[in-house]
Amino acid sequence: MNKAVIDVRDIIDDIGAEEEFSFEEKFSPIKTETTNIEFVEPVKFDIKAQNTGSGIRIKGHIRSALKLVCSRCLNEFSFPVDWAIDEIFYKPPAPEEEAYTMKDSTIDLGLPTDEEFVLAIPMKPLCKEACGGICPICGEPITGKHKPHEEVKIDARLEVLKKLLEDQEQK
Ligand SMILES: [Zn+2]
Ligand SMILES: [Zn+2]
């Protein structure tokens, strides 16, 4: 679990007061049930904190990029995430169970950022929208470098595989 703590003691007693925070934090990979998701770069926080009375409203951008594997060509690629955050972190007790809370005068944006970044990952990540996938003949990714195979007849088994791949794409 990552940590990114800001201290809002300067505005905590002053309803309406605002403070800006701009910093970077190196995040460790996020562990999910199936995999570890690595960050390609530090997480950049550009946020404004505002005292709302019942808590602190955090508004702004939290940005980084995740290392994902393309679902078509299986290459790793960098997937940028920009969380336009607008959330209230309540002084305890929270008004509802799932609400974010603050601790004394501090707010930890680490876990919310982990969660939001995982949610941003598409079901079928693509290195690019037009990713050609993997060639059924040679097994190489179909990129600009891949030359069409001349005079190669796709035999029946590959035809089946091709059909399977196409069916998968459509799901
Ligand atoms: Zn790809
Ligand atoms: Zn090929």
List the helices and strands and how they pair.
Elements: E1 5-7, E2 18-25, E3 30-31, E4 36-39, E5 43-51, E6 55-69, E7 76-90, E8 100-101, E9 106-108, H1 110-119, H2 156-170
Parallel strand pairs: 7-8
Antiparallel strand pairs: 1-9, 2-5, 3-4, 4-6, 5-6, 6-7
The protein binds zinc ion (ZN) (2 copies).
One zinc ion (ZN) binds at residues 70, 72-73, 75, 126-127, 131.
Residue windows where pLDDT falls under 50 for at least 5 positions: none
Separation, N- and C-terminal Cα atoms: 33 Å
Number of alpha- plus pi-helical segments: 2
What order do the helices and strands follow?
EEEEEEEEEHH
- Bound ligands: zinc ion
Note the beta-strand portion. 35-45%
Pfam family, one: YceD
Protein name: DUF177 domain-containing protein
Organism: Candidatus Aquicultor secundus
Architecture overview:
The structure is a single chain. It is built from 2 helices and 9 strands, in the order βββββββββαα. It is of the alpha+beta class. The protein has 2 domains: 5-119, no CATH class; 132-171, no CATH class. The strands form 2 sheets. Strands 2, 3, 4, 5, 6, 7 and 8 form a 7-stranded mixed beta sheet that branches. It has a two-stranded antiparallel sheet with strand order 1-9. β6 (55-69) and β7 (76-90) form a beta hairpin. It is elongated, with a radius of gyration of 23 Å. The model has no long low-confidence stretch (mean pLDDT 91). The structure holds zinc ion (2 copies).
